[in-house]
Structure formats: structure tokens, C-alpha cells
């Protein structure tokens, strides 16, 4: 039997996705759960596994097109004897059934976000999805304006990103100027190509993750007055413990013991002592979080992502290690869902893995602080004993940077919070590990 592959529902707020790359061609065999394509949403890029084993017989939606959740994008035939290959691509993607969502072999319906598909806007010749119509109504965008909008979806369809971008540009410029948006975009591209001619230059479009990161970082700097505090931390005991127990941990858990869970554990405990650092700001109100959703900045193939360990304050050391390893691996393999990069209350970024010893990270909005971890290096340090005698020893040292939002965290609070983390690491209780 044939199985329809649909644009998956990646999260409650995700209504559409862009097909970045088909990883299989018509006629190729596919195993169940094998990656079949890569999609991009406004939250994260992900590789999508096949819902069944069989042969890919048809690709309905080509690379580069954006379609709504629930739209049929490919067809898989599970019966080898009934395979009929279609190497063509449909001009318009077939929407999921209006009344019933598509069925996968397990018998469980895939939940489409919009089962009504695209509908014709009254009085116009173009089709607009319910989501686009809802946004245009809310923002006061007239049908005449929609009809003049250059859509980036399949067949020139106006997508959520198109309408939101139009609304943002319209607010910043006179309405008459917006009407000529396609011309403005083409002129801008030609101007860039003129300014940076080939072959000495190449104009490259930012990918989805890079665009979102750029927007997020600019917004953070514009929103929060950033202040940084830097402390030196002696992690010699942790380094020795890891070297001694690394093999046993890997045999027990199936993955390598890194320094990450030690830093996360120390930060989570400090957040419990200083709850204001685990908050956010809305207007003139401070939103205190009674839970810790810990963000881990991870370098993915397409750019920096921050997957989140939900309810990290309820996990022990091994639980934090497992969660950190799982999220990091799935980030690099593009297996994250949008929900897994949302809802963080505090973030840690480890630029030390690239050999950097000190950095000044940008706060991950709407959070109010971020911890930066540098590379661990052996250094000569001065030790003072109880008799106040000084000596020089070789110790494993790391520099920790706390960047924080000075609107609600002053130097005293930021300094005490950072020193609490340092103290926890230097006097780490290894009985709580494994």
C-alpha cells in the first residue's frame, strides 16, 4: 500500500515548514525511521525520519518550497510488487484530507495543524491559507495589498513569513514604498552583485538558523544593558575525578563523561540560591520562575542552537549528563523539535571547546543571565595554607564569565551568584555523581 508523507507538526506554534533537502530519490529503498528529508521551520532545522519502510515512489514538493503542516510532500510504497516510480514533481502539493488526517501504517493519524488547506480569498484570484488570512485580518492588511505581495511558497503562495515580513516593513516605511517590494528586493540583489562582483566575491544567503540567530542577538543587545563578571575557578579535583572514573562512567552509561554536567549542576544549585537570576522581564514586571529549564549552546551544522534541559532542577548528576549528551547529539544530527529549543530560563555556553579561555557571551532573551565557560588550562597558582604560608602549585584553572541584564541584576548579585558557582565547583561533592 502507499503511504503519504506529510509535512510534520513540529510544535504547537509551527504552522509550516520549508523543504531544504531531499535525502532520498524516487526509486530508492527506505528503512523505517531512516532520515528522508531535511526541513526548516522558524525555530529549528530538522531531519525527518520515514514513517515506514518501503520505496520512495514520488516527491510531491521540491526542495526550497514552503508548505503548511499536514500537506502531502511525498509518497512511499510499502509493497515492492506495486512500485511505480514517478520522477516528476506536482505543480501544487496535495493537501491532507479535509475531514480526516493521513494515516500511517501504525493506524495512528498524523495531526495536521490546518486540515482545511488553502482557500481562495473572496474577491481575489490567489489562494491564502487560514493562517495568512488570520494574520492579515489582525494586522489590517487589505486584500489588495495581499494580491501585490510576492509569495515565496509553492507557486508564489504567500507564507506566514511573507506576511509577517510585509507587516514589519510596512510599519517602518510608507505604504506606497511597500507596494514595490519585489522591485526593491531585486534592486538590492543587483546592487550587492554590482558591489561585490564575481569571481572575487560570492553573495550567499543566510540560512534559516543564521537569520534567527542574527535577529535574536541584535534584539538582545538592544533590549538588555549587558554587564560581565569574570572569575577564576580551580577545577583540579573535578579534572582528577573525571580522569579516574571516565572509563567506568562510559561503560555504565554508554557515552563519555564530559565536564558539562559538573558546570550545569553547579549553576542549577546557584540558581536555587539566587532565584532572581532565573527570571525574565515583561515591561516593569519581573517574572520569577519556580523551575529551571537549562539551555545548552551547541554548535550545529547550520549555526548555533540552544536546546533546553527541561526541569533540570529535578535531575541528579547522571540525569543531567544523559540529557546534555542526548540534546547535543540530536542538535548535531538535526533531530531536535522546536519545543526543545524553547522555554529556557538560564543558559551556559562552552566556548572553551574551541580553545578560548575567556569570552563575553550575549544574554539569551528573555533570560537575564548566561554563563560562559572557557578552556581548562594548567597554570601555576599561589596557594595559601592555614598558617598563611604561600606556595606555588600547578592547578587546572578555568575562567567563568557571567553576562547579565543590568536592569534587574546588579554587580553585587551577579558577583555573589558567580562566586557561588565557583565555590560549588572547587568543593564539588562527588558523592552525588554516580
What does this structure look like?
The chain has 10 helices and 20 strands. The chain starts with a strand and ends in an 8-residue tail after the last helix. The strands form 5 sheets. Strands 11, 14, 15, 16, 17, 18, 19 and 20 form an 8-stranded mixed β-sheet that branches. It has a 4-stranded antiparallel β-sheet with strand order 1-8-6-3, with no helix packed on it. It has a 4-stranded antiparallel β-sheet with strand order 5-4-2-7, with no helix packed on it. Residues 91-124 and 175-181 have low confidence and may be disordered. Strand 9 and strand 10 form a beta hairpin. The relative contact order is 0.11. The radius of gyration is 26 Å and the shape is globular. It has 434 residues and is of the alpha+beta class. The protein folds into 3 domains: 1-117, Beta Barrel (OB fold (Dihydrolipoamide Acetyltransferase, E2P)); 135-205, no CATH class; 212-432, Chloramphenicol Acetyltransferase (2-Layer Sandwich).
Instruction: State the helicity in percent bands.
Output: 25-40%
Using the alpha-carbon principal axes, give the shape.
globular
Secondary structure category = alpha+beta
What proportion of the residues form beta strands (DSSP E)?
15-25%
Low-confidence stretches: 91-124, 175-181
Features:
single chain; 434 residues; alpha+beta; OB fold (Dihydrolipoamide Acetyltransferase, E2P); 3 domains; 8-stranded mixed β-sheet; 4-stranded antiparallel β-sheet; 29% helix
Amino acid at each position: 500500500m502507499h503511504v503519504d508523507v506529510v509535512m510534520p507538526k513540529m510544535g504547537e506554534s509551527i504552522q509550516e515548514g520549508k523543504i531544504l533537502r531531499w535525502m532520498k530519490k524516487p526509486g530508492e529503498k527506505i528503512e523505517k525511521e531512516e532520515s528522508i528529508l531535511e526541513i526548516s521551520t522558524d525555530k529549528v532545522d530538522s531531519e525527518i525520519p520515514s514513517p515506514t519502510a518501503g520505496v520512495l515512489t514520488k516527491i510531491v514538493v521540491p526542495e526550497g518550497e514552503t508548505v503548511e503542516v499536514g500537506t502531502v510532500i511525498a509518497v512511499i510504497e510499502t509493497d515492492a510488487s506495486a512500485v511505480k516510480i514517478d520522477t516528476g514533481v506536482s505543480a501544487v502539493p496535495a493537501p491532507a484530507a479535509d475531514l480526516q488526517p493521513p494515516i500511517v501504517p501504525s493506524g495512528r493519524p498524523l495531526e495536521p495543524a490546518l486540515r482545511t488547506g488553502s482557500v481562495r480569498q473572496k474577491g481575489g484570484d490567489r489562494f491564502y491559507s487560514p493562517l495568512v488570512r488570520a494574520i492579515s485580518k489582525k494586522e489590517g492588511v487589505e486584500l489588495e495589498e495581499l494580491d501585490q505581495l510576492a509569495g515565496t511558497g509553492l507557486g508564489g503562495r504567500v507564507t506566514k513569513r511573507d506576511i509577517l515580513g510585509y507587516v514589519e516593513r510596512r510599519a517602518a516605511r510608507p505604504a506606497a514604498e511597500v507596494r514595490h517590494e519585489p522591485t526593491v528586493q531585486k534592486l538590492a540583489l543587483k546592487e550587492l552583485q554590482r558591489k561585490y562582483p564575481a569571481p572575487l566575491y560570492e553573495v550567499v544567503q543566510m540560512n534559516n538558523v543564521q537569520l534567527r540567530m542574527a535577529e535574536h542577538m541584535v534584539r538582545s543587545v538592544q533590549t538588555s544593558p549587558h554587564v560581565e563578571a569574570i572569575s577564576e575557578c580551580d577545577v583540579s579535583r573535578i579534572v582528577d575525578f573525571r580522569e579516574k572514573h571516565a572509563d567506568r562512567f562510559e561503560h555504565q552509561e554508554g557515552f563519555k563523561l564530559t565536564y558539562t554536567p559538573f558546570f550545569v549542576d553547579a549553576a542549577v544549585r546557584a540558581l536555587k540560591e539566587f532565584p532572581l537570576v532565573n527570571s525574565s522581564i515583561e515591561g516593569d514586571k519581573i517574572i520569577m520562575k519556580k523551575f529551571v529549564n537549562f539551555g545548552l549552546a551547541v554548535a550545529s551544522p547550520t549555526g548555533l542552537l540552544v536546546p533546553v534541559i527541561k526541569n533540570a532542577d529535578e535531575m541528579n548528576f547522571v540525569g543531567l549528563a544523559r540529557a546534555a549528551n542526548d540534546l547535543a547529539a540530536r542538535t548535531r544530527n538535526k533531530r531536535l523539535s522546536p519545543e526543545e529549543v524553547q522555554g529556557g530560563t538560564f543558559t551556559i555556553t562552552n566556548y572553551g571547546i574551541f580553545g578560548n579561555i575567556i569570552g563575553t557571551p550575549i544574554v539569551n532573551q528573555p533570560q537575564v543571565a548566561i554563563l560562559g565557560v572557557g578552556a581548562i588550562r594548567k597554570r601555576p597558582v599561589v596557594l595559601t595554607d592555614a598558617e598563611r604560608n604561600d606556595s606555588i602549585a600547578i592547578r587546572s584553572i578555568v575562567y567563568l564569565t557571567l553576562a547579565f541584564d543590568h536592569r534587574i541584576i546588579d554587580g553585587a548579585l551577579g558577583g555573589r551568584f558567580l562566586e557561588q558557582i565557583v565555590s560549588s565547583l572547587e568543593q564539588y561533592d562527588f558523592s552525588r555523581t554516580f
